[in-house]
Amino acid sequence: MKHGVEDGLLPIETPRLLIRSLLPADVPSLVALWMDPEVTRHMGGPRDPAKVRDALESELKADAPDPFDLHPVIEKASGRIVGDCGLLWKEVDGRSEVEVVYVFAADVWGQGYATEAASAVRDAAVHRLGIRRLIALIDPENTASARVAEKIEMRRERSTVRPGGGIRLIYAYEVPPSPSP
To answer: To which H or E segment does residue 61 belong?
Structure first.
């Protein structure tokens, strides 16, 4: 499967957004997103543009998109990239977890895009990939991100210290067990 072809998770469509595989034309917009100090304030700050570009170029060379990666979020009305959203494997307190990650351009904050995208990714993870537990690692000062987690039915579990020493709140979504017959 090449880029643009469904990988088990993608594409994901919502009323206003399309989450799809990376295309070469997406690279400049995503590099700019990850360099924005306001956008990355609660995520360790702006990324090195060369490292972001190299990571994206490597992703483009892969035979198939990885469902455990971030993917461009396109605003259908304008056709522009407004975010990066997806699933990432994380080691948290000695446990392997799947994190829902949502990063959006500052000019679209407050429009519900993060909630819309994260909810759709959560549903695709559960229904297409069979994942039973998802987390979000959130900077305690990032109240907007915590609100998104709560809106997509995640519940705050506890806090943890990440490898760099930063404290993050762990929000979790767990698929309820099926009732016994």
So the answer is: helix 49-61
In a domain, 62, yes or no: yes
For 58-104, what is each residue's pLDDT tens digit? 999 988 878 999 999 999 999 999 999 999 999 999 999 999 999 99
The answer to whether residue 46 is domain-embedded is yes
Q: Is 4 inside a domain boundary?
A: no
Read off the DSSP letter of residue 34: H
How far apart CA 7 and CA 19 sit, in angstroms, is 12
pTM confidence score: 0.92
Cα torsion angle, 43, 102, 172, 10, sign:
negative
How many domains is the chain partitioned into structurally? 1
The DSSP string of 111-158 is SSHHHHHHHHHHHHHHHTT---EEEEEE-TT-HHHHHHHHHTT-EEEE
pLDDT band with cut points at 50, 70 and 90 for residue 6: very low
Q: What is the 3-state secondary structure (H, E, C) of 13-58?
A: ECCCEEECCCCHHHHHHHHHHHHCCCCCCCCCCCCCHHHHHHHHHH
Range of the domain at 118: 12-174
Q: How far is CA 106 from the centre of its chain?
A: 16
Q: 8 with 65: CB under 8 angstroms? A: no
